[in-house]
Amino acid sequence: MAAATTTTTRGFATHPSRLSFLHHLPHPHRNNAHPADVDELSKRRRLTIGGNRLGVSRISCCCSDPAVPIRSSSPAEKRKKSDERRFDSNQRPPQRVGLKAAAALPFASEQSQFASKQNSKVYPRRRPRCTPGNTGPQSRDTPPKRDTGIASEKEWGISLLNEHVKESGTNEDASTWYRESGEELGDTGYRCRWTRMGGASHDSSSEWREEWWEKSDWTGYKELGVEKSGRNAEGDSWWETWQEVLHQDEWSNLARIERSAQKRAKSGTENAGWSEKWWEKYDAKGWTEKGAHKWGRLNEQSWWEKWGEHYDGRGSVLKWTDKWAETELGTKWGDKWEEKFFEGIGSRQGETWHVTSNDERWSRTWGEEHIGNGKVHKYGKSTTGESWDIVVDEETYYEAVPHYGWADVVGDSTQLLSIEPREKPPEVYPNFDFTRSPPAMGTPLPENEPPPPPEDEPPPED
User: Which of these, 101, 120, 92, 85, lies nearest to 9 by C-alpha position?
Assistant: First the structure.
């Protein structure tokens, strides 16, 4: 029986017998093919702007700003897209058509038991329940799964206790557990409600810990979060955190929702581990930013991946991806691309490269200039002597708006929005700092420094 291949949304594939990059069908801005090979594929593209008529929907948020019309597809179409593409690692964005399972890397290695446990086994989320008889929370000693993006509120099932609790106990199998909850108050009306729980096996060979919280203050800031960690009897260890924040942007005065997730896991029996950081930011006028940084290692191979998307809410789009890998023998290879568009005019460019252990280098660069009149200038070259520079008749296709935007994140953040607002005393005024510069575009989601990763830090990036 042929083995299945699990493919990520950004170009890596994990195969039961080897690691591989995902190679694409011929496409000028994906795999740097010669333009003559992609005419038929290009004809099937359609210009986003001027296509299907966009509807207008109106939403409201719990801030003082009035609701802003949001451009969106029809309800049926949007539901279909969201269901198919929201966080499914086996789906691709529409501009990445023609992806195929790939040829293997020339440096194959047997799949580790750690990787198998991470990718093939399904770990259902088991929600701790407060049951009569002083029964402890159910064990949650399962590591996070790779390439699952940012989970929703419903997936976490956060349920904070209303009363102060501090209890512990021993189960029939001699494993132990504890659960406690409380509330903290601070400046500017700061309030944090939290619940902590955890447990360990009878011999302490495995243990787990999880904390839930909700925060709010007088400024309208609201936050919902989770942090969990653990290790099992095989020595595998992991750490994961998730946050969802609502606040009012100090420069635009618009409501903004930001979501983030960080995940790390390490094998206890072999040289294997991985780390991921995901973030999404949305505001009430359609400004959206999304991105991820990933790293992994399996025995002699290591790989990295970074990608980002930025929509300014007025039609300007920037997308980019950079991924690379290396072996302990010194061989390295990678691929990167970038696209920028506004009102049908823009460019795409990229590079694929390879360096052998003897420092022999190969690369192919390519580019496209979309002029906006049905003409596309395509050019490229490689270190082996191939080159092209032509102008072709071709339609331009790109996503002018994100498939998951402000209206969607508001609809999926009901628990965050329902956090009880804090009342501000009449004599308290906001403290604005006009000496600070506005944040630079593309900066990662502001957050507190996370705890150190389990032992080994990912190797430095080139």
Answer: 92
- The phi, psi pair for 40, rounded to 5°, reads -65, -40
CA angle 206, 211, 213 (to 5 degrees): 175
Q: Which residues lie below 8 Å from residue 256, measured CB to CB, with a gap of 6+?
A: 246, 247, 248, 249, 281, 282, 283, 284
Instruction: Give me 25's structure tokens.
Output: 């069908």
Are 249 and 399 spatial neighbours (Cβ–Cβ below 8 Å)? no
- Dihedral pair phi/psi, residue 102, rounded to 5°: -105, 165
From the list 220, 219, 200, 221, the residue with the least C-alpha distance to 209 is 200
Instruction: Tell me which DSSP letter residue 131 carries.
Output: B
Beta strands in 359-434 (DSSP E): 361-370, 375-382, 387-393
Angle at 126 between CA 121 and CA 128, to 5 degrees: 155
Lowest mean pLDDT among 200-214, 218-232, 341-355, 420-434: 420-434
Helix runs in 150-286, H state only: 153-156
DSSP per residue, 326-353: EETTS-EEEEEEEEEEETTEEEEEEEEE
Q: Which residue has the higher pLDDT, 277 or 40?
A: 277
DSSP 28: T
Radius of gyration of the chain (CA): 25
Token pair 């999304």: residue: 290
Residue 246, class by beta-carbon neighbours within 10 Å (0-12 exposed, 13-18 middle, 19+ buried)? buried
The two structure tokens encoding residue 9: 């949304």
CA–CA separation, 265 vs 454, rounded Å?
7
Residue 65 DSSP label: S
Burial category of 146 from C-beta neighbours within 10 Å (exposed 0-12, middle 13-18, buried 19 and up): buried
Number of residues assigned to the chain? 462
Torsion over CA of 83, 150, 246 and 155, rounded to 10 degrees?
A: 70
Q: How many alpha carbons fall within 13 Å on the CB side of residue 64?
A: 8
Question: DSSP class of residue 407?
Answer: H
Assess whether pLDDT exceeds 80 at residue 181: yes
**Helix ranges (DSSP H) in 48-102:** 75-85
DSSP 2: P
The DSSP call for residue 147 is T
> And the tokens for 264?
């790390």
> pLDDT for 401-434, tens place per residue?
999 999 999 999 999 999 988 888 777 665 555 5
pLDDT digits (tens, 9 = 90+) for 239-266: 999 999 999 987 878 999 999 999 999 9
